[in-house]
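Narrative of activities, Objective 1.

The group set out to show that a structural description can be obtained from nothing but a protein's sequence at a throughput compatible with the screening campaign. Below is one input-output pair from the validation batch, recorded exactly as produced.
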Amino acid sequence: MQKTRMTFCLASAACDISITAVLCYLLHGSRTGFRSYVSSALVERALAELFNSTDNLVNTLMIHAINRGVITRCSVVFFLVRYETVT
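Output recorded for this entry:
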């Protein structure tokens, strides 16, 4: 049973890492360099600075993808450790 859980954990890690890597690769390839000119009167200044170009938006999406992968990976490790300590 121990070998099965470790295999599942490694397979889960490989899937998380590969999905995050492919998503970042595809997002990085979709950069256009197009500048978006947003009126500060319509949008808050912080949002206008954050999303002032599509490249910044793509960077933000890549950061969110990496963070989601890390959170998913940490939760799987936490539950695996918790399961091992309880049983």
